[in-house]
Write a structure and sequence with these properties.
One of its GO terms (cellular component) is plasma membrane. The chain is mainly alpha-helical and about 600 residues long. It has 21 helices and no strands. Helices cover about 70% and strands about 0% of the residues. The longest helix has about 45 residues.
Length: about 600
């Protein structure tokens, strides 16, 4: 498959050249007639619009999903075609990323091309090549050394499913474009500047009376409420699909490593049993060896059990990130930036532009590394539970365990009770009474100052010891929350004032601002009004000239009519006469001089 990745660049470049040849350059400088040799061919083609694409979203998402195996190949740093020093490894990974992107470029280019008939044929052929090569690879090497039978199928079935979907999508595009080409179906309108959901959002804002609230279901109230006036861009859909598939592949790879380590530990455990049998269970190291065996068995079981909650946590994060994206975008549309740290209220424009390119890749990497870190933390918590609650019962030490648990619970309860008691004493004796019965709490005004000073003095020494436990609890809670939320790129885990050190959160904020500035429904609606008005004025002007050309009277050739309109334009705009291009033999210079003399007189 790695070898085919290199050779796939040949048909990829061919498809790119064909699509580029069909694409005409729209904005070009004025040149002489002899320089238009290519007839404005070989325009720049784009794979997809990362900012404002709301149509064909799931096709782009599935196309991203087809790249999952190669993304994991790059993530594991397996791309090493050359033997280079360690300091140049970043350049090799950059080249590998460019090669993978170029190899999968035709999928996106064929989906976004305006020439549906040609692009569907090219996209179907290229997808069929990848599908056939993947099937051939699975048939030749179906089994593996870690999971045994059908290990290759477990790795490649998501890519096969995505390629099969792309085959069906390109086939559907071909049938529709062929019907349009044969005249059996009308040509579909070009992509609208203003999307339907954006127009509906503006209509909702302009309504005087708020819409009647309907009864919401439990799913809408507790989990997610669908909004018909909001759509996720293709970038978010593609990132989520690719993150799901990469997370699945990462879990499979981790399970393969677990199987390998488990087999090695079983061999090591067999050697320990042979040592115990040779010593007739009378050696001084026998208790320690038994504890090591128990630790290995418990660790294997805990690691295997915590795979499910760790993966479910990361899957829930992916859905929650989409919900947070919608919530943050709506707040920015409303002009609300209070949910952002103060230093991110006016981010750098260049950093925001780079963030739109970083976000998707960083989100996937955060999810994968976050899963591994969460899995390790959950495994450590599982070991603590096993050694503190389960194993004492297995070893007939349940009473001692309950006694220690009761003493610990009682100690913590007393400490918390004393802290609550301090608050109650301060409320009852050291604050002045409420100024009004409607007040929720007493005013911050001291009462019984002498008693208050003695209260502070005697609790000073106790609070020194209490602060030690509070400091340790702060450290423990920070570690737990930091590791638990490490995969959440939409939420910073840094303290207030240090959010700038969180590069992932900075990429999230920059991406939000780029989408806010380029897809704000109110701004897009305003631009759509300007464009529509400009088109209507041009249409009215064209109709006026058409009526002039179709007026009754003697037939006049087109050349005198054109020269007459040119004369009117130059008389009304004398400065344009000086900018006219002079052509020898046409008398344009003399015509211009006469026109200038007439305008001066």
């Amino acid at each position: 498959m790695e070898l085919f990745l290199h050779y796939s660049l040949i048909p990829s470049l061919f498809i790119i050249l064909v699509l580029s040849f069909l694409q005409r350059r729209e904005h070009r400088k004025q040149r002489d007639d002899t320089s238009h040799l290519l007839e404005n061919r070989f325009g720049i083609i784009i794979p997809l619009d990362f900012v404002g694409t709301f149509s064909n979203r799931w096709s782009y998402g599935i196309a991203f999903g087809a790249t999952a195996n190669k993304v994991m190949f790059l993530f594991s740093e397996g791309y090493q075609p050359l033997q280079i020093p360690q300091w140049a490894q970043a350049f090799v990974l950059l080249i590998g990323g460019m090669e993978v992107g170029l190899s999968y470029f035709p999928f996106f280019a064929c989906l976004s091309s305006e020439f549906h008939l040609v692009s569907s044929i090219l996209g179907f052929s290229y997808s069929l090549i990848w599908f056939a090569v993947t099937i051939l690879h699975i048939i030749e090497c179906p089994h593996g050394q870690f999971l045994g039978k059908y290990e290759t199928v477990m790795f490649y079935w998501p890519s096969l499913l995505c390629l099969a979907f792309l085959l069906g999508r390109f086939l559907h595009m071909f049938v529709k474009s062929l019907r349009v080409h044969l005249g059996w179906e009308l040509q579909r309108e070009e992509k609208p500047f203003l999307e339907v959901h954006q127009a509906e959002h503006v209509k909702r804002l302009l309504r005087k009376a708020p819409p009647q609230e309907t009864k919401k279901s439990w799913f809408q109230t507790r989990i997610y409420e669908w909004d018909p006036c909001f759509q996720f861009p293709s970038r978010m859909i593609g990132t989520t699909v690719l993150a799901f598939i990469c997370l699945y592949l990462f879990i499979v790879i981790e399970f393969c490593m677990f199987v390998y380590v488990r087999d090695e530990l079983d061999v090591f455990e067999g050697e320990l049993e042979n040592y115990i049998a040779s010593m007739n269970q009378t050696g001084t190291l026998i208790p320690a060896i038994l504890q090591v065996k128990e630790l290995m068995n418990v660790s294997k079981g805990v690691w295997l059990v915590t795979i499910l909650p760790s993966s479910l946590t990361c899957v829930s994060y992916l859905f929650h990130i989409l919900a947070c994206y919608r919530k943050h975008m709506k707040r920015l549309w409303a002009g609300n930036k209070h949910f952002l740290p103060l230093k991110f209220h006016h981010p750098s424009s260049s950093e925001s532009v780079v963030a739109i390119a970083r976000y998707s890749g960083w989100q996937i990497a955060y999810i994968l590394w976050g899963y591994l870190i969460i899995h390790v933390v959950q495994s450590l918590c599982g070991l603590m539970i096993m050694y503190s609650l389960v194993l004492p019962v297995v070893h007939n030490q349940g009473l001692e365990m309950l006694q220690g648990l009761g003493i610990g619970t009682l100690t913590i309860s007393i400490v918390l009770g004393l802290m609550i008691l301090q608050v109650w004493i301060a409320t009852a004796f050291f604050l002045q009474p409420k100024m009004s019965a409607a007040d929720k709490q007493k005013p911050l005004a001291l009462n019984s100052r002498k008693a208050f000073q003695n209260f502070n003095y005697f609790l000073f020494f106790y609070n020194v010891l209490l602060g030690l436990g509070a400091c340790l609890s702060r450290l423990l809670i920070s570690c737990i929350l930091g590791t638990w939320l490490i995969a959440r790129i939409d939420r910073t885990i840094m303290q207030n004032g240090y959010e700038g050190a969180d590069m992932g959160f900075g990429a999230w904020i920059g991406m939000l601002y780029v989408d806010h500035y380029h897809t704000n429904p109110v701004l897009v609606s305003f631009c759509n009004i300007l464009i529509t008005g400009h088109r209507e004025r041009r249409l009215q002007q064209a109709i006026k000239y058409w009526c002039l050309n179709q007026s009754p009277g003697p037939r006049v050739s087109a050349r005198p009519r054109t020269r007459w309109l040119l004369l009117l334009t130059l008389v009304n705009n004398p400065r344009l006469a000086m900018l006219r291009k002079s052509r020898p033999g046409h008398g344009s210079r003399e015509f211009t001089q006469i026109l200038l003399m007439g305008s001066e007189s």
